[in-house]
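assembly run, all chains below
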Amino acid sequence: MINSLEVLETNTMILKENLDVRTITMGINLMDCADSDIDRFNENIYNKITTKAKDLVKVGEDIEKKYGVPIVNKRISITPIAIAASSTKTDSYVSIAKTLDKAAKEVGVNFIGGFSAIVSKGMTESDKKLIKSIPEALATTERVCSSVNVGSTKTGINMDAVKLLGSTIKETAVLTKDSDSIGCAKFVVFCNAPDDNPFMAGAFHGVSEADAIINVGVSGPGVVKKALETCRGKDFEELCETIKKTAFKITRVGQLVAKEASKALDVPFGIIDLSLAPTPAIGDSIADILQEIGVDYVGAPGTTAALALLNDQVKKGGVMASSYVGGLSGAFIPVSEDQGMINAVNKGALTIEKLEAMTCVCSVGLDMIAIPGKTKESTISGIIADEMAIGMINQKTTAVRVIPVIGKDVGDQAEFGGLLGYAPLMPVNEFGCDRLINRGGRIPAPIHSFKN
Amino acid sequence: MKRGIITVVGKDRVGIISEVCSYLAKDNINILDISQTIVQGFFNMMMIVDVNDITKPFGEVVDELDKLGNKIGVTIKLQHEEIFNKMHRL
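ok done. output:
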């Protein structure tokens, strides 16, 4: 029998602590849309996306109503365009991005991810064309997200791509300088990118996936924070128990939504991503959880330990609540989307170097960090290389989403609006790394790539 | 049996239960259980209802109850019971 305390608990989580399902993402395979004629290819992908996903938003809204739990985003991920479009004869993929934007608007999703390339070992002609098209594609579309995977534990790091992406990011920043270089907020560089990540900007529908799939990303940092308030001053055992129990409950909601969406859309259920993802809303912050665990500001000594503990307990609690867990599954630590992180930067407690250390134990990496517009291309490539190396050596996913805000410097603030929030510009270490970046070639895979 | 949970919270006044019950009867929703308290002038009710033979889409009932709540000055929420079962039971 349902008990009123449980009903009250669930509804308090939803109403006061920002419990929500962060995203339902439909992955769609575009390999069967291949055509040598660019116009025909565009027509094929438009038709496939708008057919497969035509009910996605409505089904999402119905589920929201049925259970009274908000589903914040409905999104689409597609086969990396550099693969799907490789037989297309054209010089630029910008028209593909525009088609994707149009399809996203038609079905009503807020982002479509997969203007992507996977170049961990080498670049094909198609990969090069895609990367070349990124700045214009992101500047002329609204909802298209792009990512490039430049390394993996099994292949090493493609340093030619890392170099190229430093200038790609800079070019994207320049083309979108009128809106605080927002184009860069829609682009992420990965190492060990998973095929089934439902979270933007890095979502794409990997080649290992079925024709269409439903992936769900759960969230709820506010709920975890609130639960932790009940164990102030208690030891780590109790702290961990509380996080696990809360993560279990949050994940169960995600699993319910995923099953329901998969049934209603007649598309198989893929994975639940156990990430804790913050929003700029007050009380929906990862930084607040870390502070509740015991540091005054994020960045203080002890922060990495607190984050490691949080991540591990979220996974332990969540894994039992869902039959299939995948994606990135960990806590996101973006700067601009998290009020607590923004406060920590403003206080001077948090630096890029500390964030980099934290990424060794979090799910993703350097995320939504605004840096001075004058930052050199090679410096951006250097930041990417460092972060990719962490992922490669530690057999985990890492990513870089930095935004060189053209015309602004440390002390200024960049405004992105909506879920992307705002960010104070963070200082970057300006000592050069040109000689390293200009070497070219690949960093070989580490010895544990031979684990068989 | 498919069941829904209705929660009604707000400042107490005459006729809240009557308004909610009349609405449910109109749409063929049977009430299985009601628990209700008033704490410091605040009305707090939880109902378990049978939504098997409901005459319209679930979402529409959710919207209409929300509107009814606005009209009589309380918050009315209808949710499918699964969310509570899934969250709190192994």
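Chain B touches chain A through 21 residues (CB under 8 Å).

Chain B has one domain: 3-87.

not gonna interpret more than that til we talk
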